[in-house]
Amino acid sequence: MYQFLIADDEILIRKGTLKKIEKLDLPIQCAFEAGNGKEALTYLEANPVDFVITDMDMPEYDGVQFLDYLKRQFPEMPIIVISGYQNFAYLQKAIQANAINYILKPFSREDIQKSLLDVIAILDNKQAQKSNENEVIISTIIGHQTELGMKALQKMIPVPNQYYLVLSVCRDPETSLDLLDQSAIFSEPVPKYAQTRFSLIEKSQISGLINSLPDDVLLGISSPVMDAAAIGSYYDNCIDALNSRKSHSQPALFYYDSTVKNEKYAFPHIAELMYYLETGKENVLKEKLRGYFETAYFSDNATLLDLKKIGLSLIEKSKQFLDDYYRMQSNYTYPEIHQEVLERLFTFMDISTYFLDFLGNIAKSMSYEHLYSSQDIIVNVKDYLDIHYADPITLDFLSDIFYINSSYLSTLFKEKTGRKYVDYLNGLRIDAAKTLLQTTDRRAATISRLVGYDNEKYFYRVFKKFTDMTPEQYRKQK
C-alpha cells in the first residue's frame, strides 16, 4: 500500500478529491492532509510518503515554493499537480519539478485515475529495481560520487583495461534486454529512463553481445576503463559516442573516439524560428523546425549533437526573450534542460519531439500577446528591432518575415521614421552600449559583441560618430 500526502487549502475540494480517489480502489492511502505547503513541508520532514498531490495556489507557502522544496529534498518522488489555473508559469514549474501530471480543476474521475495509475506504475518499477548499492553505483557514474559508490566500483573492476562502460538505449519499450544483463557484471536502468541503462561488460563479451542484440538497441561504448575513480569520464565517453550518431550510420554501436573532432554545423534559421515563437505561430514553428531538423539529419548528415545544439540554442534564446519581455526570471532552468537533452535523448524522434513540444508550448503561450501585430508595418519592424538589435539583422531578413519588398521597406522606413534603417539600428545598439558602459565594468570589446558588433573597430567608429567620444572617454565622463 503506497502512502501519499495531499495539499490543498480548499477543504471541500480536498475532501472531494480524496472521495474520488477512495472510490477507485487502488493500492494507495492518504497519510496526511495539508491545508498549505508549510503544513505539508512540516509533515514530510518527519514522515516518509511515496508520492504527493498538491494544489498550486495556497496561502503561506504556495505550490511553487512547495515544488521547489520537493525537487531539492525528494527529487525522485512522483508528484501530481492540481490547479484551478491554466497558468504557463505554474505548468513550467510543474515540468521542472518532474511532476507526473498537471490536472485542471474541475477534473473527472478518469483524469485522477490515469495520473494515479501512472504514479503506481512508477512506484512499482522502483520497488522492482535492484539493491540500493546498484542505485548508488549508477548515481556515482552519472556524477553524484559517493564513497560507497566508488568502493563498489573499485571492487567490481579489480583489473584495469578489461572492461567497457556501455550506455544502451532501447528504442522499442517491448524489447527485452535480458541478454545485456546476462553479459554484464553490472547492469542497471538510468533513473527515470527505464529503456536506458548502464552496463559494465568485459572486453571478451563485447563482440558476442553486439552480434546478438536486437537492431533497435543502440550502444555507446566508452574507452577501456583504466581507473574506476575516473568513472565520470567514461560516462562522458558513452554520451559522446551516442551523440556522434548520424542518419547514415548503419551499425547500432558507437565506440568513443577521442580523435574525432566535429566541425561546427551551420544553421542559419534561428532568427526565423524565434520570430514564429515570439508571434505565437505554434503550428508554423513546429512545421518549420521539423522540416529543418529532417533536412539537417537526413540530407546534411548532421549528428545528433548538432540537432541538440540547435534546439538548445533556441531554448536558451527563448529563455532570454521571456526574461526580457516579462522583466522576470522564467521558470525553467536551462542547465537542467541542457543536461537532460545531452544525456538522455539519443534518437531523432525523441530529440525532435522534445524540442517541438517544448518550443511549441512557449509559442502557444505567446499567441495571447499579439506581438508585432500592428497595422503599421514600420511599428512592427521597430518593435522587432527594439528586442533584437543585438542580433545580425538585415533588411532582407526583415522583408521576409514581414512580407514586404526590401527596397520598399528601406524607403518606407526612412519616410516613417526620418532615419535610415542602418542609422536606427546603430542608434539602438549605441544606446545599449552607453548603458553598459555606465552600469558595468565590462571591457569595450565585450560590450561591442553584446550589442551586436562582431568588429570591434567598427563599433568604435560608430560609437564616436554618435557621441563624439570613444567608449573609454564616455565611461570616464559619465
Description:
It holds the Pfam family HTH_18. This is Two-component system response regulator YesN. By secondary structure, the chain is α/β, with parallel strands linked by helices. It folds into 4 domains: 127 residues, Rossmann fold; 123 residues, no CATH class; 97 residues; 101 residues, Homeodomain-like (Arc Repressor Mutant, subunit A), CATH 1.10.10. Helix 2 runs parallel beside helix 3, helix 11 crosses helix 13 and helix 12 packs antiparallel against helix 15. The longest helix is centred in the middle third of the chain and has 23 residues. The chain is globular and about 75 Å long.
Helix content range: 55-70%
Which strand order does the major sheet show?
A: 2-1-3-4-5
Q: What CATH first level of the largest domain would be assigned?
A: Alpha Beta
**Which second-level CATH architecture of the largest domain applies?**
3-Layer(aba) Sandwich
Whole-number radius of gyration? 27 Å
Determine the number of helices (DSSP H or I, runs of at least 4 residues): 22
Counting DSSP E segments of at least 2 residues, the number of strands comes to: 10
Give the CA-CA distance, first to last residue.
69 Å
Structural class estimated from helices and strands: alpha/beta
Show unreliable segments. Answer: none
Bin the strand percentage: 5-15%
Total domains: 4
Name the overall outline: globular
> Could you please say which CATH topology of the largest domain applies here?
Rossmann fold
CATH superfamily of the largest domain: Response regulator
Average pLDDT, rounded to a whole number, is 88
Largest sheet features = 5 strands, parallel
Protein name: Two-component system response regulator YesN
Keywords: DNA-binding, Phosphoprotein, Transcription, Transcription regulation
GO biological process, one term: phosphorelay signal transduction system
Organism: Trichococcus patagoniensis
